Amino acid sequence: MFAYYLDLALHSLRRNKVLTTLMVLALALGIGATITTLTVLKLLSGDPLPQKSTQLFYPQLDPYPKDQPFSRSGKKLPWLMSYVDAMNLLHARKAERQAVMAMSEVKVTPQAQDGKPFYAHGVMTTADFFPMFDAPFQYGAGWASADDESREQVVVIAGFLNDKLFGGANSVGRTIHIDDRDFRIIGVLRPWAPQPRFYALHLSGRNYGMGDAVFMPLLSARADGMTPSTVMSYGPGSDMQHLETAPSIWLGLWVQLSSTDEASAYKLFLGNYAQQQVALGRFQLSRVALSDLMSWLHNEQVVPDDVRLQAGLAFGFLLICVVNTVGLLLAKCLRRSREIGVRRALGASRGAIFAQFMVEAGIVGVAGGVLGLGFAELGLWGIRHQPAQYASLAHLDLSMFLFTFVVALVSSLIAGLLPAWRACVVAPAPQLKAA
What we know:
- The protein is an alpha+beta fold.
- The protein is built from 14 helices and twelve strands.
- The longest helix is centred in the last third of the chain and has 35 residues, at 350-384.
């Protein structure tokens, strides 16, 4: 029977080409707008490390004086830590893994004589960074904790930088010139760029896009005079050359805790540490926070409000398009009352009439999905040409491709319910008399 209903539906749609075109176009516009905004929302609000996000936590302390609240409300804790606090927590080793980090813009000079220096995004961090964040290696490996303390001049580089400087060959053991100093390459990463760039929130002005290019031991990078991209002072005597002792916050700390018990124990340790610093006179407040990765992203409002607003407006527009499609299908149904009456008189049941019209609505939905997919690609193409950080990442993946047709089919079937119900309750006798 489905083949029969399909044949009737196609015949009906071909017979009313203008109405069919309007219905498909209405659905396609709503679907295209919805899928475009949902793709961007999914990109910005996704889990950057789904296999480990529940085990990663971001500690926060409050070194600010009471008369200098961090925010207007005085409730929000500072994003970063001072060098003293970050090192104290790191060396306490109360977590399975912990890594301190800061971002820096570094100058890379190619070894080729005609190579021009260029700037790249660098990370000054500690040894646990790579295993804690599951950074994949193509060649070599990261450095050890002992290399942090001995300030080894080593570096891990990203695969795209290795391609640019060494043509993709195994460069482990070779030298790279960074900020007028030579570093020995000990590892090359595979393509790795978590979106959003969660480990660098507030450490630089870039939360999306291509991953970082170079990763260096924090202590050796600072010994060579490299400066962090973000520094916030909370007292007099701040000096960019002596950040290790200055009243400034410029480091982020991530810890890995495998269970809720470990997280509770670490938060208790964090609170005790803050109280100890109050007793020592370094802090005036003992406020602390410990957020898991997804909570941290939510608290810091990584997804811009305008993106959520656009998604809401797109769904509203889709609803309007569905209502318009309902009207067009209903008008089409009323024009076919005589045809429906004849079919009922010949023995077609109400269920058969209902199924026929729902198949017709489904065909409109599939056609709307195909055209809507084109509109979505056009919308994403426009986004990729915007100056936003995430613009280049706006692509339709397989899940959103399939979701397009789910939305199209569901929308069209919802739109077809009222017309199909109206068709199946048409009384055959008055229609036959009118004929």
